[in-house]
Structure formats: C-alpha cells, structure tokens
Amino acid sequence: MPVLIDIARLATCPPDGGPDDIGEVEDAALVWRDGVIEWVGRRLDLPTRYADEPRQSAEGALVLPGLVDCHTHLCFAGDRADEFTERLRGTPYLEVAKRGGGILKTVRHTRAAREDELLALAQERLDRMIRRGVTTAEVKSGYGLSPEAELKQLRVYRQLAAETGVRLIPTVLAAHAVPPEFAGDRAAYLGVVCGEILPAVAREGLARFSDAFVESGAFTPDEARRVFEVSRQLGLTPKLHADQLSDTGGGALAADVGAISADHLEFVSERSIRAMAAAGTVAVSLPLATLVLDTPPLPAQALREAGVPVAVATDFNPGSAPVCDLPLAMWAACVRQRMTPAQVLRGATTVAARALGIQDEVGSLLPGYAADWIGVDRRSAEAWMYDFAPDAVTQTVVAGDAR
Ligand SMILES: [Zn+2]
Q: What gap in Å lies between CA 13 and CA 15, rounded to an integer?
C-alpha cells in the first residue's frame, strides 16, 4: 500500500464542489490500496496506521486527478493533412468534401484498414494522450458507417482497453454522416443504423453511449430523435454533437432525450441552455475544434450562470481537431472561453467524468476513487495554465501503476 509524499500541492477536485472549487491541499499525502485511494490529506495529519507503509516520492510535484478526455474520435486510418493546407488557403470545407475530402475520406481509409492496423494507430495516439496526463478517455466510432466497419472500430477500443489498462468508454456514432452508398437515401441508412448497427453493438456490449451529429449537412433533430429512441430501448445512453456550426436546437434536444451530455454548443441558444440546466445535461466544450475551424467559442459564462456544468475535451479527430493534447485544450478553454484555470481543471476531471456517468469512480482524488493521478512540474493549476508548457506533466499513474 504506497504512501505518496513530497507533494507540494494536491487538488482533490471534489465532484460536488462549485465551478472554482478544486480542493487544494498543501504539503499533502495520498494513500492507495489495490488501485483505489484510501486516504488523502495534509501530510501532518497522516494517520499513524500508515507509519510503516512504503513511501513513494512525488518529488515536489503538483498532484492532480488523472485527466478525463470525455470526447475523442481516437480510432481512424489515414490523415487529412492536405485538407489542412487547402483550408488555410481559403477553400471552404464543403468544397473540400465535394472533392472527396472530409469525413468520408476518413471513412474510406478506415473501412480499408485491418483491425490490427487500426489498433496500432490508436495505440500510438493513446500513448501520446497518456504522456499528457490522460487516464480515462471516451472513444467514438463513426468512421465505419456500416455494421461491419462500426463494429470493427469498437472492437479496436475493447482490445486497446484490455492491452493498456486505460479506461476507455466507448460510444457508437453511426449517425455521424450518411455513407456514399446511401447518398440518395438517408432514410435507408437510418434504417441500417437503427435496425442493424445499434442492435449489434448492444448485443456485443461494445458501447455505453450512442451519439449523433445534428447539423445542416449531417442529421436533423427528428432523425437523431429516432436514433435515440432505439438507443434507449437497447440500453445505450444518448450523447449529442449539438449546435456546432448553427443553432439547431441541439442543446434542447439533448435535454429532451435525456442525453448525458451535449457537446460543442458554440451556437447554443438561451432556450437550450435553460433546458439543459433543468435536465442536468453536461455541456462539453471542444475549444481545439473552434481554434482550427475559427468558429466562436462556446458561451461558458452563460452556461455556468445557468448552472450547467462545463467539461473540456479535445474532440481529437483527423479533420477539425487533429491534436490529441488535453492540457492544450484546457489552455485554449482559458483564453478563448474565459474559463479560469480552476474551472478548466474541474472541466477535464470531475465534470468530464460526469459527462461519462463515472463521477463516482474517477476525476477526483478522494477515498474510494481510482488511484489515477498525474504529477505536474508547476506550483499550482493556475501556474500550469499561465505559462503552458507541453512537457509540464511528468508522471501519469493509472490505478496506482506508473505509465
Ligand atoms: Zn466530435
């Protein structure tokens, strides 16, 4: 049972705290047994029953809960680096998509890749995320868009979780785009989603959540509602890509169908914010995508004032957010969404865990929680976000094991 000492400062990030409450403890100690935290507090108050337990030094680091990236599209093949340059030259996304680029380009590459190839690609990306402090990640399908290829992506996640021990929470996103073979018949594709893909995913226990992309050019609120009705019957909790490029009433739809979170929300309306507050829906902000697409930031202050908790995630994907760096997303949430360092730390730990329904298991450093923690070479969360350095995370620990 290790006792972690030499912690200059520790943040517990209590699940029931206010938006700026990160529960800081100076000169702290942390004790865990079998991967679960048993005691946390000031070192001076360490109970004598731990006197003979082995000591482990945090070497004066800032110790924080392991980060939770609650929105990623980790598994895909190919890249879209050429589109990055094209878009910087001013070519609109729709034009890029018409020439065979965009989501459907990634779908072509992902369908053509073997499961072991996808696994190797996802493994390398997950390693990068771990080095930046991520200990839990939500992982979506959505680049298969056929029963076979969606299941292939989700099986990669199951394999990856088994091999790495990192908590991966899978989400089926079959309603991400209409695949080319159904270009003229959206209803037929939705029939495949509801009649084949979702039931097969539920049967194999391959996902916990079901997501849909509601946007002009993607799916309508009515189409998503149908997907979610079927999802609910199959035991898959809804999540929603909502109000990213326009106000489609996505936030209100998420609240209405009992979604655990509504993600993006750059164009969320007042009415949707009120509905989300009443329903307890978590808002997931994805500030790297707003940087890449040069779109307005999510209105964090309006959401916070209405009582909607705001999480921060990467949206890691090959198009709008090809950077799997959650601390960078936290920094972007500070400067673009005017969130404080304490708010973004809660947003990437306990609030992110709430967006995945696991806020009683991870995201806080309290007794009974997983011993998932990171060491940061800074004196406080505020100092970390202030002079953001890519290598500030010096240690990532999952269930008591150093990674
Ligand atoms: Zn996304």
A: 6
Phi then psi for residue 71, to 5 deg, are -160, 100
- Would you tell me how many other CB atoms lie within 10 Å of the CB of residue 89? 7
Architecture of domain 67-354: Alpha-Beta Barrel (3.20)
Angle 105-172-106 from CA coordinates, rounded to 5°: 10
pTM over 0.85: yes
Burial class, 100, CB count within 10 angstroms (exposed 0-12 / middle 13-18 / buried 19+): exposed
Q: Where in the chain is the domain with CATH 2.30.40.10?
A: 3-66+363-402
| Closest of 74, 76, 197 to residue 139, by C-alpha | 74
pLDDT digits (tens, 9 = 90+) for 141-168: 999 999 999 999 999 999 999 999 999 9
Determine contact, residues 149/108, Cβ cutoff 8 Å.
no
- Return the beta strands (E) in 266-354 as ranges: 282-285, 310-312
Q: Write out 297-317 in H/E/C secondary structure.
A: CCCHHHHHHHCCCEEECCCEE
Cα four-point dihedral sign 349, 161, 284, 105: positive
Distance 168 CA to ligand 1 centre (A): 16
Asked if 120 and 86 touch (Cβ cutoff 8 Å), the reply is: no
Q: What pLDDT does residue 98 have?
A: 79
Amino acid identity at 119:
L
Query: Distance from the CA of 145 to the center of ligand 1, in angstroms?
Result: 15
CA of 139 to the centre of ligand 1 (A): 10
- If pLDDT is split at 50, 70 and 90, which confidence band does 249 have? very high
CA separation, residue 214 to residues 89, 114, 173, 259 (Å): 28, 29, 11, 13
CATH topology of domain 3-66+363-402: Urease, subunit C; domain 1 (2.30.40)
What is the location of CATH 3.20.20.140 in the chain? 67-354
Say whether pLDDT at 99 is over 90.
no
The values of phi and psi at residue 29, to 5°, are -135, 150
**CA–centroid distance, residue 263 to ligand 1 (Å):** 8
Could you read off the pLDDT of 341-385 as tens digits, one per residue? 999 999 999 999 999 999 999 999 999 999 999 999 999 999 999
Please give the distance, rounded to the nearest whole angstrom, from the Cα atom of residue 342 to the centre of ligand 1.
24
| Cα(59) to centroid(ligand 1), Å | 37
